[in-house]
Amino acid sequence: MSEAEGSKVNTVLELAGVGRHFVQGDNQISILDGADFALNAGETVALVAPSGTGKSTLLHLAGLLERPDEGEVIIAGESCSRLSDDRRTAIRRSEIGFVYQFHHLLPEFSALENIMMPQLIMGLSKAEARDRATQLLDYMRIGHRADHRPAELSGGEQQRVAIARAVANGPLVLLADEPTGNLDPETAGYVFEALDALVRQSGLSAVIATHNHDLAALMDRRVTLDDGKVVEI
Ligand SMILES: Nc1ncnc2c1ncn2[C@@H]1O[C@H](COP(=O)(O)OP(=O)(O)OP(=O)(O)O)[C@@H](O)[C@H]1O
């Protein structure tokens, strides 16, 4: 295999010439315009860019929550832009983990049940899902909170549950949209470090949008958005 072919195989997520345009009033604005990006297996990348430049838009496209207006989103070698909604949902469920700024946990379920849920949807047995959820809670050092509902957890604990839920099905790629943006600096630091450790321990690839340059420095690479394109910083 040539070096070029080898590096393709190693690319878990690719954006190729991606464009996303919105109409605002009388104007069309191009948030992404010919954006290229490649994420390698086991790599962590921080996406650091000013508010409103398109970080969430990029993550939504990469996570197959939206379709680009042009260009391709390629996950594990499969071009996804023209696939059916059902196929995109299947890929998203098996290959993508998402963490948001706000935890979006299901309020009526416990921490453990929230982490079991995506596994049950994927067809795992209750016992398997419970074992994996318990392991993840222990890894995130909140095993003692397993039976608590989200409202009974601190902000940092809620985000650690949300991170555990995002990786519960062993995705290929973790996408996180300011996962610590809603936390005080000290809590943000330890939640981010726990996220980083979990990603590295499980060999995951991750793109993490953050405004925090100290936390971004923990990642393998940093990129920003400039004039609708992804550029290294
Ligand atoms: N569905 C939409 N319709 C119209 N405009 C949109 C839509 N989605 C996003 N935008 C615009 O695209 C721009 C980029 O939004 P996006 O949420 O991606 O930015 P961001 O970098 O994540 O910002 P923040 O850091 O504040 O979360 C914003 O100006 C936003 O108003």
UniProtKB/TrEMBL annotation:
Keywords: ATP-binding, Cell inner membrane, Cell membrane, Membrane, Nucleotide-binding, Translocase, Transport. GO terms for molecular function: ATP binding; ATP hydrolysis activity; transmembrane transporter activity. It comes from Hoeflea olei. Belongs to the ABC transporter superfamily. Macrolide exporter (TC 3.A.1.122) family. One of its GO terms (cellular component) is membrane protein complex. Residues 13-233 form the ABC transporter domain. The lineage of its organism: Bacteria, Pseudomonadati, Pseudomonadota, Alphaproteobacteria, Hyphomicrobiales. GO terms for biological process: lipoprotein localization to outer membrane; protein localization to outer membrane. InterPro entries: AAA+_ATPase, ABC_transporter-like_ATP-bd, ABC_transporter-like_CS, ABC_transpr_LolD-like, MacB-like_ATP-bd, P-loop_NTPase. This is ABC transporter. Pfam families: ABC_tran.
